[in-house]
Amino acid sequence: MSSVERLYQMALYSGFKVGAALECKDGTLVTGCNIESSSYGLTICAERNALFKAISEGKREFTRMLIVADTNQLTPPCGACRQVLWDFAPRIEIIIANLEGKQMAFSMTDLLPHPFGSHLL
Fold first, then answer.
1. DSSP class of 3
2. What is the pLDDT of residue 7?
3. pLDDT tens-digit series, residues 63-81
4. What confidence tens digit (pLDDT) does each residue in 77-103 have?
5. Are the C-beta atoms of 32 and 20 separated by less than 8 Å?
6. R_g of the chain computed on alpha carbons
């Protein structure tokens, strides 16, 4: 079974397939995919999946994340993912791409110019 077929099995309801690869400062790569629940609110995006896996394995410093969606248009992270990435990796580079080879890169301040953070608590 190909990795795209496995992603489709995790996107059972929407068919919106996304994969993420998070590069840690030590060079480790941690991957994630979106995993859907029939109760959409319980679904987790690929970006948070990869980040939470890395954090659960003790990683705390990150350099970049590649997010690939099976779409014609490039798809940036959703609002929830932007907030979580800001909280745990505010200086990370975000690269979005599709299966056709199109890509763009952003800083977190590009994606979330006026973030909510611990400084406001």
1. H
2. 53
3. 999 999 999 999 999 999 9
4. 999 999 999 999 999 999 999 999 999
5. yes
6. 14
User: Does the domain spanning 3-120 belong to CATH 1.10.10.60?
Assistant: no
103's CB contacts (< 8 A; 6+ apart) are: 74, 95, 96, 97
Residue 13 is encoded by which pair of tokens?
């309801």
Give the start-end residues of each E strand in the chain.
18-24, 29-33, 62-69, 93-98, 103-107
Active-site residue, selected from the candidate residues 47, 57, 93, 100:
47
Please answer whether residues 115 and 107 qualify as being in contact, where contact means their C-beta atoms are separated by less than 8 angstroms.
no
The answer to whether 54 and 9 have CB atoms below 8 angstroms apart is no
Q: Which amino acid is at 106?
A: F
Tokens 């400084």 belong to: 119
Where exactly are the structural domains of the chain? 3-120
> What does the mean pLDDT of the chain come to?
92
What pLDDT is attached to residue 20? 96
pLDDT band, very low/low/confident/very high, at 10 (cuts 50, 70, 90): confident
Residues 31, 21 contacting (CB under 8 angstroms): yes
47 carries an active-site annotation: yes
